[in-house]
Amino acid sequence: MTEPSRELVSKYWDEQPCDSEGLGFPEGSLEFFEEMEERRYRYQSFIHSFAQFTRWRGKKVLEVGCGCGTDFLQFTRAGAETYAVDLSQHSVELAKKRLKLYGLKAEVRQRDNEGLPFPDNYFDLIYSWGVLHHSPHPEIDVAEIYRVLKPGGCLKVMVYYRNSPYWLYLWLKYALLKGRIFTSLSRLISERQESPGTRALTMKEIKRLFHQFSPLKFHPAPCLEISFLKKHRAVSWLANLYPHKLAAWMALDGQKPNEVKLEEIG
Q1: CA separation (Å) from 8 to 24, 26, 133, 156, 196?
Q2: From its phi and psi, is residue 193 left (phi > 0), alpha (psi between -120 and 50) or beta?
Q3: What is the number of other CB atoms lying within 10 angstroms of the CB of residue 154?
Q4: Distance, CA of 135 to CA of 120 (rounded, Å)
Q5: Can you list the domains of the chain with their CATH numbers?
Q6: Of 160, 158, 156, nearest to 255 (Cα)?
């Protein structure tokens, strides 16, 4: 399976910025952004307790993959010194317009995550919600995140987790029922879950990807499954019973060690 280029990923999000689908107001208007925020935290209320936006007042915060800036806005409102990068130029323009509408200032750049334009050991927190699983080379992105995070600094990310029946549903719908029974689950996720090349990681892959950060703490977030169940009346009653360990979203946090290992020197 050929990995898609970053240009294809960027094109996808330029055409449909994250969380912008189905909003009932003109793009870029105050009402547009207000509805986007209300809907995001209605279905993903877990983000508040995970991100702890108000905790980072006065700290340097980088969001890798800010999209239209909903979470980024919360860090900025809370008084953090905020910076953001996103691969999509359209998303960056919307995030900048959003900040201007609220009279807030922050640095937002259209950049590839493989070369973050910041010095080593610069940020107190690096935050990335639902972004790294879209990257053709997440290991390079994580290495850059590690580089610009201060020793003792905090990492907070969410990636797609393979241990969910949601991915089986995807395979049944787009492979089995379409007569493509020999199509792998990885290929289906790559083709059907948002931008080209999206992946869902196993726990072993997640631990390997973030092995330089410790201690790693895992927070399964079944937002995708609960939202899906609530939309289907016949099974909506299952939403409150859904086991978190079978979540398709895995949030995790960790720290960059204060002590640099010898092999990292030179």
Answers
A1: 27, 26, 14, 26, 7
A2: beta
A3: 21
A4: 22
A5: 6-163+199-257 (3.40.50.150)
A6: 156
For the chain, the C-alpha Rg in angstroms (whole number) is 19
- 3-state DSSP assignment of residue 243: coil
Q: How far apart are CA 113 and CA 137, in angstroms?
A: 9
Q: Encode the chain (266 residues) as per-residue pLDDT tens digits.
A: 567 788 999 999 999 999 999 999 999 999 999 999 999 999 899 999 999 999 999 999 999 999 999 999 999 999 999 999 999 999 999 999 999 999 999 999 999 888 999 999 999 999 999 999 999 999 999 999 999 999 999 999 999 999 999 999 999 999 999 999 999 999 999 999 999 999 999 999 999 999 999 999 999 999 888 888 888 888 898 888 999 999 999 999 999 999 655 444 44
| Three-state secondary structure call for residue 46 | helix
| CA–CA dist 22, 40 (Å, integer) | 12
Residues counted in the chain: 266
- Per the listing, tokens 């850059």 go with 144
Q: Are 91 and 68 in contact (CB under 8 A)?
A: yes
